[in-house]
Design a protein that fits this description.
CATH topology of one domain: Anaerobic Ribonucleotide-triphosphate Reductase Large Chain
CATH class of one domain: Alpha Beta
Length: about 600
């Protein structure tokens, strides 16, 4: 087994390893990997189960491949709900609204996350004929869902996660855009589903009609450019809303005969039909660096195992609701993605914001897609294509039959990347040293595993305290140029590069790509708007922009505190007095503030 980091062990012990009724740990990390592999392999033919279980267990133990969190938590346990992503429909009547809430509660209890489109709900103030009252509007019901979610523990170890989606032409869109500027909605991400027509109107400075969701009649008009600015301003202040590019998503809907896609999972990377679910997994591509290149043969074998693993999960999972089981089994959607992208670039000596990084992203994304699709085709020949294949879009296009309606997704892999000891998804390094606040009262300090070795190779270990204090290498005095160049962090990377990296991978991904466009604190509202527009121009399926420090309780904070009172500049002891700490050797000082 690859050596787990202390942070990985902390996460596993806190969230994943089995405990008895008294809360005493009953499982080791090796036991977890064995439990998951054995459960997944039950979907294989009897004579092949042991071999595949052993191969899958070895991949997980080597931290090369991991399934989504519900699988790690629930595989081989009573209940056995293994999918991560669900979309629940919400129709415009009270019974449907609260039936959706009940369904979400059951999904959260089993470890899944839910997405909803509230676009069908009548606008605030609309007359309700059955009661002669007035409608309270979508945002009021989103707050009801949020309050209910707060009381439900996801699988007993994490809070429920939700995504609320509202179409850009809904009459309540402005209230929705502003919804997260104040308190509340702690258990929801929010995204506006924008259309090509809206973005064209914004580019031309034209008005845009808001329409009643029941009749389609125009209710009023707004300047499209002003509405886009309001979205950018809200995202600048709070990180939300994100945007979903609805026409781009629908163009890639593999089963349009079942209806239109209206919503996505909580992190936005998985567009799903009503009552649809998806299993996710990620390959740690950083583990396949070989010298100055990629070990394509080993990587391909891992991708093929990942597709087989996710397809098997569909047959061993216990779906929380019959309606979900029906659609999931018909379409058999899976989403294999990657993590460790920034680590791979570091190990190959390629800066994240260099043109070579985009070229490698295109090459790697294309390779993963080809290997994943071929494996799904092999599984179709072996086990049959997904039941909805005959009427699907790829079948009508004359493509070879596949076992799965979708095969690839790039998820954020926040917790999975901690377990694997790698960088998240396709993100740049958030920082080379930072504190992660993700386990309640536990703060995890993280440093890039390659940093110290690189400094030692350059005989520049003395720069380490300054790098740790700043959380970055670029622009820090005394840090070797090579280190500054290669160890690019999220705020070193220009917004345009963030978006272009997302687009480079999206070209090869069936579903969506979860990617945060991280902006520095001093970024402007117009830079947020420009990122929105560029993402649409480059055919992304959605975008999330986050300005550093714009939200209280930020999960990742750059830099780590000096250990044992050491000065981050020279390593000497710090002396504390009156709220300030001063280095006894070089005079470096830091003081607490009320901010």
């Amino acid at each position: 087994m690859s050596r787990l980091t202390e942070n990985a062990r902390a996460v596993l012990e806190r969230r994943y390893l089995l405990r008895d009724d008294a809360g005493v740990l009953q499982e080791t990390p090796a036991g977890l990997f064995g439990r998951v592999a054995s459960a997944v392999a039950q979907a294989e033919p009897a004579g092949a189960r042991a071999a595949f279980a052993a191969r899958l267990e070895a991949r997980m133990a080597a931290l090369e491949l991991l399934p989504n969190s519900p699988t790690l938590m629930n595989a081989g346990r009573p209940g056995g709900q293994l999918a991560a992503c669900f979309v629940i429909p919400v129709e415009d009547d009270l019974a449907s609204i609260f039936e959706a809430l009940k369904s979400a509660a059951l999904i959260h209890q089993s470890g899944g996350g839910t997405g909803f489109s509230f676009s069908r709900l009548r606008p605030k103030g609309d007359v309700v004929k059955t009661t002669h009252g007035v409608a309270s509007g979508p945002v009021s019901f989103i707050r009801v869902f949020d309050a209910a979610t707060e009381t439900i523990k996801q699988g007993g170890v994490r809070r429920g996660a939700n995504m609320a989606v509202l179409r850009v032409d809904h009459p309540d869109v402005l209230e929705f855009v502003e919804a997260k500027r104040g308190p509340g909605l702690e258990n929801f991400n929010v995204s506006v589903a924008v259309t090509d027509d809206f973005l064209r109107a914004a580019a031309r400075g034209e008005p845009f009609a808001l329409r009643h969701p029941r009749t389609g009649a125009a209710v009023r008009e707004l300047p499209a450019r002003e509405l886009l600015h309001r979205m950018a301003a809200a995202a600048w202040e709070s990180g939300e809303p994100g945007l979903l590019f609805l026409d781009r998503i629908q163009a890639d809907n593999p089963t349009p005969d079942l209806g239109a896609i209206e919503a996505v999972n909580p992190c936005g990377e998985q567009p799903l039909l009503p009552w649809e679910a998806c299993t996710l997994g990620s390959v740690n591509v950083g583990a396949f660096a070989a010298g100055r290149g990629v070990d394509w043969e080993r990587l391909g074998a891992c991708v093929r195992d990942g597709v087989r693993m996710l397809d098997d999960l569909l047959d061993v999972t216990s779906h929380p609701l019959p309606a979900i089981a029906d659609v999931a089994r018909r379409n058999r959607k899976i989403g294999l993605g990657l993590m460790g992208w920034a680590d791979l670039l570091v190990r190959l000596g390629i800066p994240y914001d260099a043109p070579e990084a985009l070229r490698l992203a295109d090459e790697l994304g294309g390779y993963l897609a080809r290997e994943a699709h071929r494996e799904s085709e092999r599984l179709a020949a072996e086990r049959g294509p997904f039941p909805g294949w005959p009427t699907s879009a790829p079948a009508r296009a004359g493509r070879p039959p596949r076992r799965n309606a979708t095969v690839t997704t790039i998820a954020p892999t926040g917790t999975l990347s901690v377990i694997a000891g790698c960088s998240s998804g396709i993100e740049p390094l958030f920082a080379v040293a930072y504190v992660r606040h993700a386990l309640g009262d536990v703060a995890l300090e993280e440093e890039h595993p390659d940093l110290l070795a690189r400094l030692r190779a350059l005989s520049a270990e003395g720069a380490l305290p300054r790098i740790l204090a700043n959380g970055r290498a670029r622009g820090v005095p005394g840090v070797p140029e090579e280190i500054q160049r290669v160890f690019a962090t999220a705020h070193d990377v220009a917004p345009e590069v963030h978006v272009r990296m997302q687009a480079a991978f999206q070209r090869h991904v069936d579903n969506g790509v979860s990617k945060t466009i991280n902006l520095p604190r001093e970024a402007t509202v117009d830079e947020v708007r420009q990122a929105f527009v560029l993402a649409h121009e480059l055919s992304c399926k959605g975008i999330t922009v986050y300005r550093d420090g714009s939200r209280r309780g930020q999960v990742l904070v750059s830099g780590v505190p000096a250990r044992d009172g050491e000065c981050p500049q020279c390593g000497a002891a710090m002396q504390r007095s009156g709220g300030c700490s001063t280095c006894r050797s070089c005079g470096f000082a830091t003081c607490e503030t009320s901010e």
